[in-house]
Write a structure and sequence with these properties.
alpha/beta, TIM Barrel, Lyase, Ornithine Decarboxylase, Chain A, domain 1, nine-stranded mixed β-sheet, eight-stranded parallel β-barrel, 31% helix
């Protein structure tokens, strides 16, 4: 039954539409004021995505459903402030992210900290800020957290990150044998969920066991992996209940993976949850009520944003046209790393009257297959794959190219390769106003940052 539902979802023929939250006139005006390239964020979409994710798990029978935003996807302060209004949890994984959270005075009760390095000094700072929920991913991390708790004088709520070691079909897999993240459920080593949980209950009175955490991957479209992971967790829970008389857990964090549309149709969060919601409710029946945490980075922010770039050059070879932009993969790194096929659209430049730069064939129509979008960087990989929704008609010099669904990871991956600067970021508020939320940097800023004024 589950496999049939997955197949139906994957066979959908209708493509999601891009989120066009701004008019051509507004784009022309913003470019006139700020230049290109630039990013645009829609505040309303951010709120809508939180609501969509919450609604997908309405039929969960446990205590509560908690939405957690993984701020690694986009840590712009204005975006974090937007999510603060939705009263969601913030998932952090570094002291730099904690600094942003502290500056915004976000309630530490609304934070879950999931470190990869799990250092003692790191945990001391995290606990000192008042963060209660901490995810450990190794036995060494457990020892460091316990020592930090003694030093700070608090009792943190510990979640154990498990690696279910199940097969995952995803753009980026995070669960596989001998994987970097989390610990196996069982095994003879100290780095296993079984050993770590027993250690917390038997010899760590300064730690309170809160529950489990796992993350299977990014852009998951076949959700059988969640069913398999929950079945493996169920077996571990039964084993722990037999050996620990007072064993119980309060929270289960099933990570992210909710897919975003780029090129192929993807299931909705509700369709996704329908595959394994029964398994979650079975855990409630067997092991008592718990809070379900849904983590998301990409899904919550990707569709909220677009990037505007300008066509600065074209080259035509027979039936092939190369369109060169004033941006590159330094602003959309996933185009090079993951071959991300962002949907693209051409917008006419209203003030573009200089026809001297157009070739004699500039009005010739090329199909999507015959047009290649290339960036400004001197690198072979600086090309942009096109989506099935991309419309590159009239891709002529002076016009603008919109890249849709760029809200996740694009801003945080910005690089100064070729001495490129960061572009401005603007937000369209729920009131319809457009405000600057990050200034663009200048060559002088970059020169100073790189030590140009150090004698």
């Amino acid at each position: 039954m589950v496999e049939n539902v997955v197949q139906i979802i994957q066979n959908k023929k209708s493509l999601s539409k891009t989120n066009r939250f701004i008019t051509n006139e507004e784009i022309n005006q913003l470019v006139k004021e700020h230049g290109t390239p630039l990013y645009l964020v829609d505040e309303g979409t951010l709120h809508e995505k939180v609501l969509e994710l919450r609604n997908a798990y309405k039929k969960f029978h446990g205590h509560d459903v908690e939405i957690a935003y993984s701020i690694k996807a986009n840590f712009n302060p204005s975006i974090l402030k937007t999510f603060m209004k939705d009263n969601i949890t913030f998932d952090l994984t570094s002291l730099g992210e904690l600094f942003f959270i502290r500056e915004l005075k976000i309630n530490p009760e609304n934070i879950i900290y999931t470190s990869v390095t799990e250092e003692l000094e790191e945990y001391k700072q995290v606990l000192s800020y008042g963060v209660k929920r901490v995810v450990v991913s190794s036995y060494f991390g457990l020892i460091n957290l316990s020592q930090a708790a003694n030093i700070v004088g608090v009792i943190p709520k510990v979640m154990v990150r498990i690696n279910p070691e199940v097969g995952v079909k995803a753009e980026v897999r995070a669960s596989y044998k001998n994987g970097k993240f989390g610990v196996p459920l069982n095994g003879g080593k100290v780095d296993s969920a079984y050993y770590i949980v027993k250690s917390i209950f038997s010899s760590r009175p300064n730690l309170e066991f809160e529950g489990f955490h796992f993350h299977l991957g990014s852009q998951i479209t076949n959700f059988i992996c969640y069913v398999n992971a929950l079945e493996r967790l169920h077996s571990l829970l039964n084993k722990l209940k037999k050996e620990i008389p007072n064993f119980s857990f309060k929270t289960l964090d099933i990570g992210g993976g909710t897919p975003v549309f780029y090129n192929e149709p993807v299931p909705t969060p509700q369709e996704m949850a329908s595959i394994y919601l029964d398994k979650l409710n079975n855990l409630v029946s067997y092991h008592g009520k718990f809070t379900l945490m849904i983590e998301s980075g990409r899904f919550l922010v990707a569709e909220s944003s677009l990037m505007v770039s300008k066509i600065v050059n074209t080259k035509e070879y027979n039936d092939h046209k190369i369109v060169i932009l004033d941006t590159g993969y330094h602003l959309l790194l996933d185009a090079a790393l993951l071959k991300q096929e962002y949907p693209q659209e051409i917008v006419s430049n209203k003030s573009n009257n200089n026809h001297l730069y157009f070739s004699s064939n500039s009005n010739k129509q090329y199909t999507g297959k015959n047009i290649q979008l290339a960036g400004r960087l001197c690198d072979t990989f600086d090309v942009f794959p096109t989506s099935k929704l991309s419309d590159l008609s009239y891709a002529n010099i002076g016009n603008y190219v919109l890249f849709y669904n760029v809200g996740a990871y694009s801003l945080v991956f910005n690089m100064p390769f070729h001495c490129q600067t960061k572009p401005p970021v603007l937000m369209k508020t729920c009131d319809g106003d457009i405000k600057l939320i990050r200034k663009g940097t200048t060559f002088n800023d970059l020169y100073v940052e790189e030590g140009g004024l150090i004698s």
